[in-house]
Amino acid sequence: MSDQPFISRGFHGRRRPRATAERLPPGQYETPDFPVLSAGPTPHTPLELWDFTVRGPGGAEARWTWDEFAALPHETVTTDIHCVTKWSKLDTVWEGVSIDMLLAEAAARGVAEAPFVLAVSDGGYTTNLPLADVTGGKAWVAVTYDGAPLAPEHGGPARLLVPHLYFWKSAKWVREIRLMERDEAGFWESLGYHNYGDPWREQRYAGDP
Amino acid sequence: MSTVSAPARPRAIAWRLASVAEVRAETVTTRTLVLDVPGWPGHRAGQHVDVRLTAEDGYQAQRSYSIASAPETPRLALTVERLEDGEVSPYLTDVLRPGDRLELRGPIGGYFVWDVTLGGPLLLVAGGSGIVPLMAMLRHRAAVLQHADARARHEVPARLLYSARRWDDVIYREELARLAEGDETLEVALTLTREAPRGWTGFRRRIDKMMLAEVAWPPAERPRAFVCGPTPLVEAVAAALVELGHDPARVKTERFGPTGGSA
Fold first, then answer.
1. Which 114-143 residues of chain A touch chain B by CB within 8 A?
2. What is the rounded CA–CA span in Å between residue A198 and residue B110?
3. Exposed/middle/buried for B82, CB within 10 Å: 0-12, 13-18, 19+?
4. Which of B60, B235, B252 sits opposite A27 (nearest CB)?
5. d(CA B24, CA B8)
6. CB contact set of B74 (below 8 Å; sequence gap of 6+)
7. pLDDT of res. B262
8. Buried-most residue among A29, A192, B48, B230 (CB within 10 A)?
9. What value does the mean pLDDT take over residues A121-128?
């Protein structure tokens, strides 16, 4: 075990301009590309079969078809994103419906709030977050990237966008927000990754600070 | 306020200082680093490590690399492909030499893993340096089965379909041939997408559905598929396997790319 970083003989590295470096959390590097990461085959749900559900802890739910979802007010979000595999991408542009909006609509239909959420995706992927991390203008269900419909390999037709946490929390192919009384580990969170995943505290793996 | 059911926090994965025992040239662009890692807790085939380099002024860079060695081998091996504009990989392939030390932590990843107890058939599909974690699986399989009888081998048959640009880009070429030679339950199929040697009788195109139908077991045999390589290959292979009728839940993918985790 080593407490002090070991100096790597002959390593100089590639310094970023300060304006970029300041936006990169520890251990991250900037990429101009948009790498794709997922654990299995890309699901392809036709839009006429797609719907989105907010389910409350008591079982009450609010559901939108694709057309109903598209009719909700959308916001444009420009943000940096940080993947636990070390790449970061700056100034990405998304369009989507805020979770605040979805929860308000769901509340009006009798869906009660709860302190945790589990995002559930096509293909069985899940990720868990505290409610406080998806409310207050911090999270969206995004349907476009860079002005175009979200490509399936990037999570289309719709993915969660929670840019202040590592990007595995921004679940691709998201179909449901489940409000939970108790925190329940999602897919990567059960497989050794950090339960919360703050890139600025470098919470990559279980046990990280 | 409701209770939080999160378990007690596990111990952090510690940074360790490994010593480079050997640097082995695999192809023109890839090197295998054979490492002694004091306190290494062991790993499962398919897992990776994070490597951290620190410059004299404290500047640091981290990248992830797949483990190439079987859990049964005392030393840890990483096979690294040099990316021309890479920040970390050229250091690992060109600067690092035996006797140097290297900071790493791991093992990491609990999904893209296989061991013999999970059973087979084992279907491995690799593109380029995506072979590395799959090689750990084949080495592990060979290590476990080397003294086993034919029946035990037939319970976990394995097939590898490996796409490379050229003959000389095939990582672990001789070892793969040797493993397949000595094991009637392991089949290795290569496809060369750019250039093939004279007299080549193997595949000569990118992996497609027809090739997978030819090489893979039928879906009814329920193979466990592990697909690793650049994103276009992984997308194409995973989609084709699902179209052929394989259960998506048995198709596990991992992607490599200039910036996808192995840079």
1. 114-115, 123-124
2. 20
3. middle
4. B60
5. 42
6. none
7. 31
8. B48
9. 95
Q: How far is Cα B159 from Cα B49, in angstroms, rounded to an integer?
A: 26
Predicted local distance difference test score (pLDDT) of residue A16: 87
Chain B 46-75, CB below 8 Å of chain A: which residues? 50, 52-56, 58-64
In order of their start, the domains of chain A are 26-32+46-183 (3.90.420.10)
Q: What is the pLDDT of residues A40-50, one digit of tens each?
A: 999 999 999 99
According to the model, what pLDDT value does residue B260 have?
38
Domains along chain B? 16-108 (2.40.30.10), 116-256 (3.40.50.80)
Strand segments, DSSP code E, in chain B are: 16-25, 30-36, 48-54, 60-66, 76-81, 101-108, 122-127, 158-166, 186-195, 224-230, 251-256
Q: Are A93 and A83 a contacting pair, CB within 8 Å?
A: no
Three-state DSSP at B62 gives strand
Is the Cβ of B40 closer than 8 Å to some Cβ of chain A? no
- How many C-beta neighbours within 10 Å does residue B105 have? 20
Listed in sequence order, the residues at least 6 apart from B204 whose beta carbon sits closer than 8 Å to its beta carbon are B191, B192, B193, B196
DSSP, collapsed to helix, strand or coil, labels residue A147 as coil
Residue B122, burial from CB neighbour count under 10 angstroms (0-12, 13-18, 19+): buried
| Whole-angstrom distance, CA of residue A114 vs CA of residue A103 | 11
Give contacts of A199 with chain B, Cβ < 8 Å.
Answer: none
Cis link prior to B258 (omega < 30° from 0)? no
| Residue B22 · residue B92 · CB < 8 Å | no
Instruction: Enter the tokens of residue B253.
Output: 């993918």
Closest CA to B48 of B27, B37, B26, B63: B63
Q: Is the pLDDT of residue B47 over 60?
A: yes
Task: Decide if A5 contacts B54 (C-beta within 8 A).
Answer: yes
What are residue A179's phi and psi, to 5 degrees?
A: -85, 130
Q: Is the Cβ–Cβ distance between B96 and B80 less than 8 Å?
A: no
Read off the pTM. Answer: 0.94
Residue among A1, A9, A14 whose CB faces B39 most closely: A1
